Amino acid sequence: MKARISLAALAAALSAAPALAQDATETTDDTIVVTGVRAPSLLERLPSTLDVIDRAEIDLKNQNTLVEALAATPGLAVVQSGPAGSTASVFVRGTNSKHVLALYDGIRINDLAASNGAFNFGSDLVGDAGRIEIVRGPLSSLYGSDAVGGVINILPRQAPESGSEVYGEASVGDFNTYRALLGGGVREGRFHVAATAEYQESDGYDVTPDRISTATGDPDPSQFSVLSANGGFALTEALSVEALIRHRESEVDFDTFSGGASGFQRADDPDLRSEDSHTLWSLGLVYARPADHFESRLRAGRVDMALDSFNDGARTDTYDGARDFVQWSNVWTPDRLTSLIDPVISFGVEYQDETAETDTAFNAPLSVSEDLWSAYAAVQAGLTARFDVTGSIRLDDYEAFGDQTTWNLGAVYRLDALNTRLRASYGTSFKAPSLSERYSSSAFVAANPDLEPEQGETFEIGFDSAVSLAGRDKALRFGAVWYDSEIEDLIEYVYDGALFIGQNRNVGEADLQGFEIFAEWTPVDQASLRVDYTYTDAENATTGAQLLRRPEDSFAVTGTWRPTEIASLSATWRYVGERLDATYDDAGFYASGAGQTPSYDTVDLTGTLDVHDRLQLVLGVRNLLDETYEPVAGFAGAPRAVTFGLRLRP
Length: 650
Fold this sequence. Notes:
Layout: H1 7-15, H2 17-20, E1 32-33, E2 41-42, E3 49-54, H3 55-60, H4 66-70, E4 76-80, E5 88-92, E6 100-104, E7 107-108, E8 129-136, H5 140-143, E9 150-156, E10 163-173, E11 177-188, E12 191-202, E13 222-234, E14 239-253, E15 256-259, E16 265-267, E17 272-289, E18 294-311, E19 314-332, E20 341-359, E21 366-382, E22 387-398, E23 402-415, E24 420-431, H6 435-439, E25 445-446, E26 454-469, E27 472-496, E28 501-524, E29 527-540, E30 553-564, E31 567-576, E32 579-584, E33 590-597, E34 600-610, E35 615-622, E36 641-648
Parallel strand pairs: 6-9, 25-28
Antiparallel strand pairs: 1-2, 3-8, 4-5, 6-7, 8-9, 10-11, 10-36, 11-12, 12-13, 13-14, 14-17, 15-16, 17-18, 18-19, 19-20, 20-21, 21-22, 22-23, 23-24, 24-26, 26-27, 27-28, 28-29, 29-30, 30-31, 31-34, 32-33, 34-35, 35-36
């Protein structure tokens, strides 16, 4: 077991984490993450499945949007209904898109004004992301509602350890796509700050597939802009202030389901567009005394979100949400606590006040608010040099429906002689009904304020191992994880034919099982090959039917090669198997609510060439083989697209 790690050492390693992986092919045993226990922790000690996408990987693969960054992650089905900016859902291990919690620097950003409270992953860029941590499995015991299938935490770029830095990018590509990024940071004395500005626009392509007779070739353009900054100032040796702000806007055209000559066809419509804006900020105080191995953070802030739809310039639908929050979080890493080894203890209290206002074409206007209190605690410790346990518990007290208690318990056992890690965990979770699900009404929907939360429980067991080949230490890494989840009291729309009206009710159940396998071969420092395979069995427990948009089989093969010190290549082959979806025939008419959608595969290729100590040429090709496919039935996938750019590295 490694020597005891103080809070200061963990924090220092975390702040330097992007620099630890200058070569994206390198895999280390000392990766530090924060999402797993809401405190800096060694990844190898966590019983849950957690992936890290660091800045080096994002740059190597030339990933600009959040969808591009997440697409090849095992266990995730990332489904986008059109070009960049279009609505994108993420299904984690077969759960619904509303069952994944999205965080930005630990701040909840799920859209509380959306019909089911899900976050739209299609509206965001990743230029200001220092790393993305992805937990597959329940974490309501730390984060509360929505964390049923998993948690995706975007951690922003930070100021350098000392001095100053500047970074930037500029690129052009097919479909008249232009992107620019400029950012930097400084750390001097008591002060540090980092800031990023990013812009991207594209003419896009026609999202109505060519096979549908109503397609006209009318492209669907998109536009993004992101401004973000974070920093702090040390008031004393132990007390500092911190601040964070981020504003993102996106705009995209989309096509209609009620067009064509009949008025009931999937068809092009040049007059439809949506605007999505998102603003978050926080201010806080941090008390930290490394000698006491203790850190306490108090921060308060607000998240504002707005989604507007337009038809020929006239606003048709408006969704506005606001979340005010206060978080008090603490981390204690005592040198010695009885016989426990390297204990990490986190605990805290949170308050949220949420407001949703909607005004849509088919629903009655809605204005409703709700507040909740939460408290959580987590403990991670070694019982022996090889055996770690992690446990967490959380209480959420909602104004509308009372208390929800969730918990997780897991363990990791290391077989050091075999370079193998065994792990298992069990956790409970819940998804609070959204304000819209409870209170929205129309001529066909009656409000149901008595809806109860959806309840989940998950068990998983897995291992990862490494072996030496041809005299190279740990040249081959491989592992697998199996999980079994049940979700009860799912909210479904139930129609009453006698009364000609329906209502959202807790009537559904889902059974989810699957496994994920990976193998990574690193024959030399300059090259690696990784294969990830995902099997998902997601079915309606009542009817036995497979759930929509969850492919049973998917895999990704990624190879990287650095032929010289100044050049690198990366290629990813991604396969998505057959799945059920709401389908449309070649005339654009609705065909089935659960039709078979064909499998597809795509190949992405990127390359970089250093032309100066800090200046790189970047070439990217998405969908290299120009595959024709529909990630969502009735929505065309992106054709081949080539981009070329310059990158200024920090």
